[in-house]
Amino acid sequence: xxxxxxxxxxxxxxxxxxxxxxxxxxxxxxxxxxxxxxxxxxxxxxxxxxxxxxxxxxxxxxxxxxxxxxxxxxxxxxxxxxxxxxxxxxxxxxxxxxxxxxxxxxxxxxxxxxxxxxxxxxxxxxxxxxxxxxxxxxxxxxxxxxxxxxxxxxxxxxxxxxxxxxxxxxxxxxxxxxxxxxxxxxxxxxxxxxxxxxxxxxxxxxxxxxxxxxxxxxxxxxxxxxxxxxxxxxxxxxxxxxxxxxxxxxxxxxxxxxxx
Length: 260
Fold this sequence. Notes:
The structure is a single chain. Helix content is 46%, strand content 12%. The protein has 260 residues and is an alpha+beta fold. Strands 1-2-3-4-5 form a five-stranded antiparallel beta sheet. Helix 1 runs parallel beside helix 2 and helix 6 crosses helix 9. It is globular, with a radius of gyration of 23 Å.
């Protein structure tokens, strides 16, 4: 086809990310195929076309102090045949990738011949969630950088408890129906749906259970059914001292030596 799908998707994705404060796309060396990377202060996105597998991938990673990305996490995948693929296919891929990076929206699954496996559906970790919170609370960016300077990395559970819970509490009082609150609730739904077990625990046990009843009631009204249902169980355990099950006493067995 005369149409270059990679360059077209790259231009759309790059335009959106630059509007969010990311730098221009830079070529990324990948054995699998052509790739480009966009970086901000603590997070990176990359676009990859895997030539052997015949698919486009949108990935994310956290950056270390030297700006080097850590392990890439797949956010979305679309099959695409370079020979048979059409412009409309590339447009669908670009639109899906844009929805992901524009932030808190549900990541769509590829409507193609193959679908992602269950083990790939929930691959977002707590560190990625912390970075996405900057879209709701921009002032967190400096505190995230400070956390990295002191500890070498962000401690998600501690950071959420000390820096984020109080902001959510204040937001529920100052702008309960405002745009920031809508972004926060949509982000929580999105991250809970696609997050790994650590992230799910941070969202429920640390963030939402850290809120007062008044603040939680405001946020719960705007949460999706899945998260709200699971929080119904988690919220009931809030503040309770759950003791481990007592071990049953075992009968003492004596070993006796028979005299010969």
